[in-house]
Write a structure and sequence with these properties.
It is found in: Cytoplasm. This protein is α+β, with helices and mostly antiparallel strands. The protein has helices spanning about 5-10, 30, 35-50, 75-80, 85-90, 95-100, 105-125; strands at about 65-70, 140, 150, 160-165, 170-175. The protein has 2 domains: about 5-50, no CATH class; about 65-175, Ribosomal Protein L22, Chain A, CATH 3.90.470.20. It has 7 helices and 5 strands. It has a 3-stranded antiparallel β-sheet. A two-stranded antiparallel sheet has the order 2-3. It starts with a helix and ends with a strand.
Length: about 180
């Protein structure tokens, strides 16, 4: 059974029926030709001319930035052992309270995950840690389902994912308009 592009090409060459997973109206002549296509292109052209067209429709969000960071747990462990004040430089007061309640192994994972998440946020924001942002200005909390989110600064359209393995902590941040 054909899948994907080959199946669609056969439909356009009139040798097959449209696949069930694509709406039938996509294959009507009005969709690809004629007045409907002309109307939509004129609307977009007019909106571009007037400066009203942003490329997105109402309710959509465009990606403003993507940040990714990976940290070795061993590196964070060595930093923590050499510099006991390291968590105080990375974590906010609320995060430090959670940090103090954890076991030693879990402390390293928590610290590495927060470090990676804050670095990823600064990369997505486009500034990096230092000038415009510091570790103390970024706070990560969890919702009732355990999903991490940025509570400070409050970013309603920021998506955060943190994961750990035996050797690494990884974080990804997507910021939307």
């Amino acid at each position: 059974m054909e899948k994907g592009i080959a199946q669609i090409r056969r439909v356009f060459s009139k040798r097959a029926e449209p696949p069930s997973w694509i709406p039938a109206e996509r294959f009507t002549g009005a969709y690809f030709h004629g007045r409907q296509r002309h109307r939509s292109s004129v609307k977009i052209g007019y909106r571009k001319f007037c400066g009203l067209y942003s490329g997105k429709t109402e309710g959509e969000h465009m990606i403003k930035g993507i940040g990714i960071d990976i940290v070795e747990l061993e590196r964070i462990k060595k930093l923590y052992e050499r510099q006991p004040r390291f968590p105080g430089r990375i974590l906010t007061k609320a995060e430090q309270q959670k940090f103090c309640k954890l076991t030693e192994k879990r402390k390293i994972e928590f610290l590495a995950g927060r470090f990676a998440a804050k670095e990823a946020y600064s990369k997505a924001f486009g500034t990096g840690i230092g000038g415009a942002l510091s570790f103390q200005e970024i706070e990560i909390a969890k919702d009732e389902n355990g999903r991490p989110y940025f509570s400070k600064p409050a970013e309603p359209h920021a998506h955060l994912s943190i994961t750990h393995s035996r050797e690494y902590a990884f974080a990804q941040v997507i910021l939307e308009d």
